[in-house]
Design brief:
It contains 3 helices and 5 strands, in the order βααββαββ. The protein is 34% helix and 29% strand. It has a single domain (3-135), classed as 2-Layer Sandwich (Heat Shock Protein 90), CATH 3.30.565.10.
């Protein structure tokens, strides 16, 4: 079962480090291109939000990411030491409403939930932990 872990600072360079680690893992694990594309979008959304909102004072922090293939599923764990934030608490946006009637924000997390098969959050001590699962089966 392929597995990879990476640690990075809560900076744009750190985000690039995590996404590069995923790309290398995806290549080694021979993940389907549709899965790679979905995960790249998800990582961009979640990691950029973590850097921007998780550290409002701009202080230093750490992001850890683990990628693993288990029983036909890609499992991703993202851990950060930013402020407590459960992205799953926010209600899904009304995508049928007119653009001018929609509140700002929330579409990114909605997209994450749509692209992944499962997203779980927990606060463990002083850390946010997101677990994401994506099937490696090609959609029919």
């Amino acid at each position: 079962m392929p597995r990879s872990e990476v640690e990075a600072d809560n900076t744009a360079v750190g985000v690039d480090r995590v996404t590069a680690a995923f790309d290398a893992f995806a290549d080694e694990a021979r993940l389907p291109s549709i899965v790679i594309g979905a995960v790249q979008v998800v990582l961009d959304e979640l990691l950029s939000n973590t850097v921007k909102a998780g550290y409002p004072d701009g202080g230093p922090g750490r992001i850890e990411a683990a990628f693993e293939v288990v029983d036909g599923y890609l499992q991703i764990t993202l851990v950060d030491d930013g402020i407590a934030f459960d992205p799953l608490e926010r209600a899904d946006p009304d995508t049928e409403a007119a653009l001018e009637d929609r509140p700002i924000g929330g579409l990114g997390i909605y997209l994450v939930k749509q692209l992944m098969d499962r997203v779980d959050y927990e606060r463990v001590g002083r850390h946010n932990r997101l677990r994401l699962v994506k099937s490696l089966e090609e959609p029919v």
